[in-house]
Design goal:
By secondary structure, the protein is of the alpha+beta class. The chain folds into two domains: 103 residues, no CATH class; 89 residues, 2-Layer Sandwich (Alpha-Beta Plaits). The protein has five helices and four strands. It has a four-stranded antiparallel β-sheet. A hairpin with a 4-residue loop joins strand 2 and strand 3. Helix 1 packs antiparallel against helix 2, helix 2 packs antiparallel against helix 3 and helix 4 crosses helix 5. The protein is elongated.
């Protein structure tokens, strides 16, 4: 049974679109153009629509592929299905879609905390400060890891915890080595927008 290549194309598009908000930050980071990141965050509200389209379309493609062929009395030659119309290709597309749809849940593994960040200690407790930044544009754990990586790259950062659920990042820092504005600049480098900040 042939599979409609339009269905396969739509399935791939849906899977990629559903994970674009998390793939783009990683690609931008690797390419050194992290300022492009936030321009794709508008896709996040539509993620579940893209996921539903992908599952529906690939389900229909598998239904077409596995449906029994209706035999006719015609002795005509039947055209042999091409590779992209067969089960092997459909399986490859389905596997690709599954990886794309689940990408946001494991994208954080591509970010790492700089080694010096775990060794930062404050010499005087009076110089330790905490600030909370409200951030828009984060959509997954990969976004959190990206923000934390940029913040930890600064000297004097004691702790940093980003949360896309709360749309914020809480940073504890040594005020003799870092400032609120240097931390804000580091966050802005990721492409996400700092809407406000308050010291605790």
């Amino acid at each position: 049974m042939k599979t409609d290549h339009k269905l396969i194309g739509l399935g791939i598009f849906g899977a990629v679109a559903a994970s674009t908000c998390c793939i783009v930050p990683l690609m931008a980071l690797l390419a050194g153009t992290s300022g492009l990141i936030s321009s794709f965050s508008f896709l996040e509200p539509y993620r579940y629509i893209f996921m539903s389209v992908t599952v529906l379309v690939l389900g229909l493609a598998w239904y077409q592929q596995l449906s029994p062929v209706i035999q006719t009395d015609c002795d005509c030659e039947t055209e042999k299905p091409r590779f992209y119309q067969g089960k092997t290709f459909l399986f490859m597309v389905t596997l690709f879609a599954a990886v794309m749809l689940s990408f946001p849940s494991f994208s954080y593994v591509f970010y790492r905390t700089p080694q010096h960040a775990t060794q930062n200690q404050v010499s005087d407790l009076n110089t330790a400060k905490t600030v909370e930044f409200s951030i828009s544009g984060m959509t997954c754990s990969g976004c959190e890891a990206h923000v934390e990586q940029e913040v930890f790259a600064l000297d004097g950062i004691l702790k940093a915890k980003a949360s896309y659920d709360d749309s914020n990042t809480v940073v504890e820092y040594d005020s003799t080595k870092a400032t609120v504005f240097s931390i804000k600049r580091a966050i802005l480098k990721t492409g996400y927008e700092v809407t406000e900040f308050k010291e605790r």
